[in-house]
Amino acid sequence: MKDELRRNMPLFPIGIVTKLTELTPRQIRYYEQQGLISPERTKGNQRLFSFNDVDRLLQIKSYLEKGINIAGIREMLKQQQQVLEAKREAETAKKELSERELRRMLKQQIIHPRRGQIPLNHGELSRFFRH
DNA sequence: CTTCTTACA
DNA sequence: TGTAAGCA
């Protein structure tokens, strides 16, 4: 989950990206103008690309080689982004369910302590059920 | 020297 | 898309 931040860090100037992708600066700037990528800028207005930007450029390149036009690629990325969003939501829902399960089990343990188990005191209880 | 924008072929 | 000009 912390990887996402790393992948979105503005790191490389356009010169590095041209070597990484085999695309010309002209092409890269044009794709940005077409809304296919949104690299950050330095205080001096220079573009700084992230790993995600580079990956996306490589993706754009392969789509272009397969004969898909800019408009088509824009839609592909849009849909792909929606899929990722749905995935994140599903993941979040899953974790919330897990927490509810944990709470339920804790409550169960407090209400019906098993033999040999030390009951939780008030401090611990309030900590677990504060929310 | 690298990058940026703008304009033209 | 390539290239040139004039800046930063």
TrEMBL record:
Residues 74-108 form a coiled coil. SUPFAM superfamilies: Putative DNA-binding domain. Residues 11-79 form the HTH merR-type domain. The keyword Repressor applies. Keywords: Coiled coil, DNA-binding, Repressor, Transcription, Transcription regulation. It comes from the Bacteria. It holds the Pfam family MerR_1. This is MerR family transcriptional regulator. It comes from Laceyella sacchari.
